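The authors assume throughout that readers already know how a fold can be written as discrete tokens. A single example would do more here than another paragraph of explanation. An entry of this sort, consisting of the sequence and the corresponding backbone structure tokens, reads as follows:
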Amino acid sequence: MQEPVLPALPWHGVLFVGVIPIDHGSIGHHQSQRPVLRSFVVSSAMEDRNSKQFSNITIDSTVQNNASEIDFDETPTPSITSIVTNEGYTPSSVSMRTISDIEHRYQLVGNINIINQMEVNQDVLCICYTETYDFLAAGLSDGNVKFYKVSSGENTLILCDAEIMLNPSPVTAVKHRPVRRTHPITHTVIATYANGCVKCWHYPTAQCLYTIRERRQTLGLAYHPQLPKFVTVGDDTILYLYDEETKTRERVFRGSDTPDVMDGHKSRVFSACFNPKSAYELISGGWDDTIQFWDTRQAHSFRFISGVHICGDGLDISRNGKEILTCSWQRNDPLQLWDYGSGKLITTVEPDSYSSLLYVGKYVTNIYIACGGCDVNLFRIVDLRSHSTIAMIRNLRGGVYSLDVGPLESKYSKRILPKFAFCAGTTIFEVDAQPD
């Protein structure tokens, strides 16, 4: 396998460069071992494979009450540009428009409209809607988490405590617990930071409820779809499973020390995703070009797929739990669908009009997916039946590092697709896109 070209990551300078290429077949299976079932608190020691030294993970649940740690952005809300001109060139018989702002022009293809555009003074690395879709939370390269009111685009508050002020570090992920009938709405988000912090924020009061400090660069997280648990990923090849209610670390997922067995990651891990139809299974991906399959009842992975270079939140599993979506930072075959049960490739979706090195992708429905990346900087929605792009924004000022799926406008609406939010450079977009 040819060694992959490393991407220019948004928090470049914080991460140390290094890839260990893996040369295996497309699908790997390992003989599963009977797991040792035990729970342990987060302060237990773990071995760092890179430094070969022991370090601790700590949880601090002291609530920060200092009002001076809450900042409010008093800058005027940016206006939404609505200058639309028709272009003569129309690729694939789909309408194209050019949106102009003062310094930049970007193109809209298909039935897509920008309904909110929020300018930020730092690079935006990750975003998510809050549980009730009232706000968009944006994690920035300077360590701040900014909240924007969806109805107006106004920045209402900034989440940053004394620890982040003293040691600023890029926010690598921000997510909330999935909304279920059995899950009360908590008005909280969890943010991960490149300095190893994992912070739970209660945003109505701007209080940090607890902090987990991992001795590594924490690069992402994924919530369990049914239980109050989440997993974090990072630069040390390891996944940590936490219980949000007991604030304990329940499990460490890593490869074994057997050199000829591929039962865990060999390099940085950027993405993880739980199977929505399983209480125990999840997948993860990163720089070692593998997708690892895990069972929370055992420490090592039980299957892997190779040839998929993940550099962001580029993994998702369909709602029926049967298919995997991979969005890869690679020129060849960046968008693929895999069978979850066997790990076999179902199809490769060709990039029709424009190719892009993908950072992020999500299922919108069982028929449509949304994805984004760089070179070309674009956000697009793909129909999986025809393998065609139904809507796209390209020529953005930066790569699309993160996206989230919003709500449908109303239950009486004839709209098929919900709203979307994504970030590109220092801009957050909220868009409405529908099939023609």
Q: What stands out?
A: The longest helix spans residues 162-166.
